[in-house]
């Protein structure tokens, strides 16, 4: 199978859709190439949709703000048919994640999956975890308001202490590493949370109601440990692979089993290989997407590539380095423990004159002359990486909204995100992913909804009826990070691509409810359209 | 992809264009193509002949009328040019603001004043500003040139086979404004209001919340006259009185799950009195004779 450049998936392309086998079947039947072309409306009616739970939750806590228990019964709409991973998203991924960053003694969640006549449910960027974070973070705000405490203070009080890691959340996840207090405090400070009363008063002079909302999250990533995934019902391995071939010129080809849907594999995997080997990233090419040439892989989804495929690249490079040290002992004429690999070259310890560059080594290995029988010629290594456990990125987001008292229009005027994805490969790429993720989440909160009419027809079936957020709909974000490496892969990496999609919906709804709290508003269902907010401004119930 | 076959003509002059329009069934005017081409692609319109008027340079640009009291805007002027036009910014700022608010940069770079006015059934932004300004449209037909108040043109009263050549507005100075609450998917107005202060008092026009762009009744005494007994806003299934006198006019939902075209074409009571129903579907728009 050859998959050329594929556009953004955001969870929706890791599926066996009916057109795929149909095209293959037709091609076999006709003996000719067959091409499938769909329309936007066709895709809206067939591509998996996300979220869609009816959650019933109870939270128990003390009067001084200590959460002691949470219990959730949720009904998830799987649509008309179960999609490839829809049931897992709706159940395990959501249910095991509901306690988030909080240290809760008794946490319980059950999910009932329901078949309806809607488009099938599947993964949508942040899937499962966003549903869980929305539930928990809305609940914490309700709890804080009930006991008359500041929502930030309640959250701070219940964060999992950093000495408790690895932390068993009691729902099936063992959080690998974290420093939630550091992350939380950084976000609260960066957002100017302490000044919000003054800002609210100032906004009222302009006919605006200002509200602030916090949402924290833990987003399981790094699918995954194959044995652990089999216990979740995954029929197949979930490891990841990489091959590195060094050409006689010293140029390097990295071939990975996963394939990019816009995650910048070509840049990032080249950087990882170049960093490990101490060579110029310009000399590294990355190939993927052709099953005849690539090692078996499992694919790009769930923010897994940098904590699954990149470690495979790094481990392969380390195998090559180890081989070059062994072979280098022969080429330099010194014992192996005197060979130093540094800066893309080897030299004899204490004698930098006795050296061979990476390109010289590559050529020598290609010839293979003079190598002892235990060292194979050529430089071509493959690794299949299967981690011991998942990784758990986390973060704290703070949304500030202004609601127009006349029109009910909600504008996100400030947004702060402090995310922790462990060690990051390429900061610019991750920043782009974080920004895109936040916009995606803001779309869920304010605009996006799959609407069906009374006959079950999808009416939001084109982009004239399905509102997507645009650049002008969002503010510039205040972004920062904390770095807590994961112990479960050699790069200390955690997932990043989708994690910032998890909290924005909760942060924005918390902010809007905060802005309307003096009217007795306790909750508004997403999306927060101007009409819904306008009605609440006039005292109508939901 | 446009699946139907059609002919294409690019006349060099207005007379030739008018001859083509009157001599061919299913002839459509092509200017910016921002309404017509999507309709052809979707099958909502099936033109037999596209009369591309973009070579009619006389229809482009702005200027004062000889008496200096009106601003004349050529129908082929793009929305982007209109939004940045110094004369329009000075003398009809509500129109410039409406142009700036309409669509996105690609639409504004291609879309024309004439097309925008003629496509009022799509809830474009210029008609409401033109109505508040008490503007008239200039139409060229086989019988010569005529003018029609912008509100009547928006109501679809122009006869077929004509070409909209210009929009004429009284010069107002800065005492005018345009505001819009936009549908988040389409950027069409959920409600857009244009206001112009005149010697007779404020003129106010509304679109989006009303089935057609219209001047507020009673504007001569201030718009309060139209709002003496507003009933509460009701859900889209129920009648929406708003500031419009017509019963049964449905408001547009926020993300327009029901398209505007499905609303019954009702008329607002405006200063010009009752007008016939406005054609609202794709093919029916063409008899406007406007620049598409």
Question: What this model shows, in words?
Answer:
The complex is a heterodimer of chains A (542) and B (292). Chain A has 542 residues and is an alpha+beta fold. Chain A is 32% helix and 21% strand. Chain A contains 14 helices and 16 strands. Chain A has helices at residues 19-30, 40-44, 86-95, 129-147, 151-158, 180-190, 196-204, 226-231, 265-277, 305-332, 358-367, 427-446, 504-515, 530-537; strands at residues 53-61, 67-79, 106-115, 167-168, 174-175, 208-218, 240-246, 252-256, 284-287, 339-342, 345-348, 351-357, 379-385, 394-404, 410-420, 477-481. In chain A, helix 4 runs parallel beside helix 13 and helix 12 packs across helix 13 (504-515). The model of chain A has no long low-confidence stretch (mean pLDDT 96). With 292 residues, chain B is of the alpha+beta class. Chain B has helices at 14-23, 36-42, 79-83, 86-91, 93-101, 105-110, 113-118, 126-132, 150-154, 282-285, and strands at residues 7-9, 27-30, 49-52, 62-64, 70-74, 136-141, 144-149, 163-170, 176-182, 189-198, 201-207, 214-215. In chain B, strand 6 (136-141) and strand 7 form a beta hairpin. Chain A binds chain B through residues 407, 409, 446-447, 449, 451, 453, 459-460, 463-468, 473, 529-531, and chain B through 181, 183-186, 190, 253-258.
Please specify the SSE layout and strand pairing.
The complex is a heterodimer of chains A (542) and B (292).
Chain A: H1 19-30, H2 40-44, E1 53-61, E2 67-79, H3 86-95, E3 106-115, H4 129-147, H5 151-158, E4 167-168, E5 174-175, H6 180-190, H7 196-204, E6 208-218, H8 226-231, E7 240-246, E8 252-256, H9 265-277, E9 284-287, H10 305-332, E10 339-342, E11 345-348, E12 351-357, H11 358-367, E13 379-385, E14 394-404, E15 410-420, H12 427-446, E16 477-481, H13 504-515, H14 530-537
Parallel strand pairs in A: 2-3, 8-9, 15-16
Antiparallel strand pairs in A: 1-2, 4-5, 6-14, 7-8, 7-13, 10-11, 11-12, 14-15
Chain B: E1 7-9, H1 14-23, E2 27-30, H2 36-42, E3 49-52, E4 62-64, E5 70-74, H3 79-83, H4 86-91, H5 93-101, H6 105-110, H7 113-118, H8 126-132, E6 136-141, E7 144-149, H9 150-154, E8 163-170, E9 176-182, E10 189-198, E11 201-207, E12 214-215, H10 282-285
Parallel strand pairs in B: 1-3, 2-3
Antiparallel strand pairs in B: 4-5, 5-8, 6-7, 6-8, 9-10, 10-11, 11-12
Helix pairs in contact in B: 5-8
